[in-house]
Amino acid sequence: MDKNLRKAVIAGNWKMNKNPKETVELIQAIAPLVKEADCDVIACTPYIDLTAALEAAKGTNIKIGAENCHWEKSGAYTGEISADMLAAIGIEYVIIGHSERRTYFGETDETVQKRVRAALDAGLTVILCVGEYLEQREQGITDELVRLQTKIALGGVSADELKRIIIAYEPVWAIGTGKTATAEQANEVCAVIRQVVGELYGADNANALTIQYGGSMNAANADELLAKPDVDGGLIGGASLKAEDFAAIVKAASK
To answer: What is the pLDDT of residues 133-158, one digit of tens each?
Structure first.
């Protein structure tokens, strides 16, 4: 991390876990442990937990985000939630393009771009996920793939809007598997992302962009990962559901 250039951000991605009561309990457990954090702290929860999370986070330094949004403002899209709906209840952040959305629910680079556009138009800050499958890494096309995903997702995004985008590098093979990219591997791909953003928006904007690592970062490996110059934080899955573990990662990002 280089805090002289950009913010460190630790965001929890709760995935399909916790009911509203459990949400309040977890946020209340996390809040005192991260109150002195020298980084931004975000909890992204399931839709049904958002209002409970917002209430529980009042008076704390924890911001609340959602895990996805649709690209249309309204319409016949049963089961979907629009970015405007999220903004209307006070949500500030939204994860877009997570590999689980791409793998299980047919998300494409093009629909990711449309969701990014909708979220920005609604005033939200986007946590944009990019990353490769194991076979793609083994084929040696990680850099090309991540560059392509990044370019498409940022299509039509202005330099000013880029200030409301965080990019999370999530190697799919390291999500929920217990496997983690080495600190060197994580930094290499985060640097590739920063390079392509620099090509699109200039070096100053690229250096100001927060790029997270999101492949099984945990309390044990956070220090090593976050010590790398192009790793500016983490998008945390399983460890975000345990207050002590999540706080340990926040502590590592606060150094």
So the answer is: 888 988 999 999 999 999 999 999 99
CATH superfamily, domain 9-253, is Aldolase class I (3.20.20.70)
Tell me the C-alpha distance between 157 and 85, whole Å.
Answer: 21
Q: How far apart are CA 199 and CA 211, in angstroms?
A: 16
Q: From the candidates 67, 107, 132, 170, which is the catalytic residue?
A: 170
Residue 70: active-site member: no
Are residues 98 and 153 in contact, defined by beta-carbon separation less than 8 angstroms?
no
- Whether 170 is a known active-site residue: answer yes
The DSSP result for 100-153, as a single string, is HHHHHS---HHHHHHHHHHHHHTTPEEEEEE---HHHHHTT-HHHHHHHHHHHH
Condensed to tens digits (0 to 9), the pLDDT of residues 62-86 reads 999 999 999 999 999 999 999 999 9
Question: 22: which residues sit within 8 A by CB, 6+ positions away?
Answer: none
Q: Which of 70, 98, 100, 107 is catalytic?
A: 98
